[in-house]
């Protein structure tokens, strides 16, 4: 496990991860819905995660959600790059009842996000707009290029959970070991 911490006036966060784990996790962000999504992310990426966040949730969940994405993404970047002996490219399409979300991914060390989920309003007490904030923080800080696109769906919980699972499965596939490829770039560096 490798660990990264970040403390601001708004949040105090510690994240530990094991890239090639078993999907074990211990997550407490202070935001119940985010905990549920990150537990699912850990399970389906097979990345072991320990996350603790103490945030100013008495204001709202924004800072905690975004800052967890920043710390998790930064730590993932530290363990991914320079990339060598992995697939690098991947995609997955995850169905959850009526919802279907696709994630196409390149572990390029060049961050870019296409986010096309039609989720607004609330899921329980959680502001659905924070999903985009999380993914933007996570993807950009992880230096991943990802397209997260809703193909269909109506239930916000299903759409969001399918998105987290599709990102998780795409990461699992992209980090799959492939020693034949060496450095997976014609530039000879990632």
Automatic annotation (TrEMBL):
Its main location: cytoplasm. GO terms for molecular function: imidazoleglycerol-phosphate dehydratase activity. Its EC number is 4.2.1.19. One of its GO terms (cellular component) is cytoplasm. PROSITE patterns: IGP_DEHYDRATASE_1, IGP_DEHYDRATASE_2. CDD domains: IGPD. Keywords: Amino-acid biosynthesis, Cytoplasm, Histidine biosynthesis, Lyase. Coiled coil: none annotated. Pathway: Amino-acid biosynthesis; L-histidine biosynthesis; L-histidine from 5-phospho-alpha-D-ribose 1-diphosphate: step 6/9. Signal peptide: none annotated. InterPro entries: IGPD_sf, ImidazoleglycerolP_deHydtase, ImidazoleglycerP_deHydtase_CS, Ribosomal_Su5_D2-typ_SF. It catalyses: D-erythro-1-(imidazol-4-yl)glycerol 3-phosphate = 3-(imidazol-4-yl)-2-oxopropyl phosphate + H2O. It comes from the Bacteria. SUPFAM superfamilies: Ribosomal protein S5 domain 2-like (SSF54211). GO terms for biological process: L-histidine biosynthetic process. Belongs to the imidazoleglycerol-phosphate dehydratase family. NCBIfam families: PRK00951.2-1 (NF002111), PRK00951.2-4 (NF002114). This is Imidazoleglycerol-phosphate dehydratase. It comes from Sulfurimonas lithotrophica. The gene is hisB.
